[in-house]
Specification:
The protein is 44% helix and 7% strand. With 306 residues, it is of the alpha/beta class.
Length: 306
């Protein structure tokens, strides 16, 4: 059956809204549960992936409608650089082997904003590092931790969108790869109408709006939460832990909920360090210019580094 859609992310581009609200409203397609996608595509170790088994796990046979797979980790996990950039292209190969006629959906975001959102998520998920240490990756480590193929950490290269998009274009053909800037969600109706036209997807009702679903922590809340996170080892890998308290994870969540309920702690949004902004400008401008030229996307107008 043709017409399948695979939404690969990226992280921090409203993927949760698409998974919980948008794609379940489709009348033309069936959304495959995330756990099934993860088990079929992400879980098999490198040399143990089998396309036929993946198709079975996804239940592709005997369906009356094409399917939608939506899983942001298909681009790689944001806090470890997609395991040194190896997950993204491997998932592309697996998707092509399993669903060779699928349409690929990629959401991108202004890298200045996606870096800030990534750091905020890192702290919200239990992280303790400062921006300097988090974005510094392996520069503040010693021994084996300085090698990303031994101990992956954040890498700027993960959000150099052009390279992975070009890889998908080579596999599926440029006409089957659809790239949407996150910033187009400012007019959700127009974006969803465009997706209906380009992807052949139809919605039985207009999905609810995404605005305000994830309240962002402010600068002061982030500083407080970083310290609360020192008392649990969960749930990010690269962090410090002073003491892994019994119930530390529940304590951390309670602190986060309490901070989110205090507007005066969150009225100042976190900002990127000036050196991080400079690194982002240098790291992403060339790839963004290539992407603009190839896909006719107004990335410069949307504030992307160009």
């Amino acid at each position: 059956m043709s017409g399948h859609i695979v939404h690969i992310g990226y992280h921090k581009t409203a993927t949760t809204w698409f998974q919980k609200t948008v794609f379940p409203a489709a009348s033309s397609h069936e959304l495959i549960a995330r756990k099934a996608v993860q088990s079929a595509m992400l879980a098999p170790p490198g040399m143990h992936f089998c396309p036929n088994k993946a198709r079975q796990m996804l239940g592709l046979e005997g369906r009356n409608r094409p399917v939608v797979l939506s899983e942001e980790n298909l681009t790689g996990y944001l806090h470890n650089g997609g395991l040194h950039g190896l997950v993204g292209p491997e998932m592309a190969r697996r998707i092509h082997a399993t669903l060779p006629d699928a349409r690929i959906v990629v959401f991108i975001r202004n890298q200045f904003d996606i870096l800030r959102a990534s750091y905020t998520q890192y702290v919200a998920g239990g992280g303790t590092f400062s921006q300097k240490r988090y974005f510094g990756g392996m520069r503040h480590c010693h021994g084996a931790l300085t090698h990303p193929w031994k101990a992956p950490a954040f890498e700027y290269e993960h959000f150099d969108f052009d390279r992975l998009i070009a890889f998908y274009e080579d596999l599926f053909g440029a006409e089957r790869v659809h790239v949407y800037p996150y910033e187009w969600l400012r007019d959700e109706g127009a974006l969803l109408k465009r997706m209906e036209s380009e992807l052949g997807i139809e919605f039985c009702h207009r999905p609810g709006r995404s605005k305000g679903r994830n309240a962002a922590l402010g600068r002061l809340s982030i500083q407080i939460l970083r310290r609360a996170n020192l008392f649990t080892r969960q749930s990010v890998v690269n962090k410090d832990c002073w003491l892994d308290l019994p119930g530390g994870q529940a304590y951390r969540h309670a602190v986060k909920r309490g901070l989110a309920g205090l507007p005066w702690l969150n009225n100042r949004k976190p900002e990127l360090r000036s050196d991080v902004r400079g690194k982002a400008q240098d790291a992403y401008a060339e790839g963004n210019r290539r992407l603009m030229a190839r896909r006719d996307l107004p990335l410069g107008e949307l504030g992307y580094p160009v």
